[in-house]
Design goal:
3 helices
Length: about 90
């Protein structure tokens, strides 16, 4: 019997399931495609966008939190148009 064939308790055995277990991560591209497919009036809030696309509110929130997409405007600082800049 060779030295390599003996069991060594200090040796690290990597799991064959690494990367294949746990919750599946929703890709941001899927969420962005869903957002683009709905009209702008239906994506004013996360809740409205969720209802229009069928994607969960928490999924939208997680994509925003991970920084994979960003908000374009909010109620405090709406997007300025040329008429309102004066």
């Amino acid at each position: 019997m060779d030295a390599e064939d003996k069991f060594d308790a200090t040796r690290v055995m990597r799991s064959s399931q690494k990367g294949r277990v746990g919750r599946r991560i929703i890709q941001a591209k899927t969420v962005q495609d869903a957002l683009v497919s709905i009209p702008a009036r239906n994506r004013k809030t996360i809740r409205h966008a969720s209802e229009a696309t069928g994607v969960a509110v928490t999924t939208f929130w997680l994509v925003l939190k991970r920084g994979e997409t960003s908000r374009m405007s909010n109620k405090l600082k709406p997007i300025l148009i040329e008429q309102k800049q004066d």
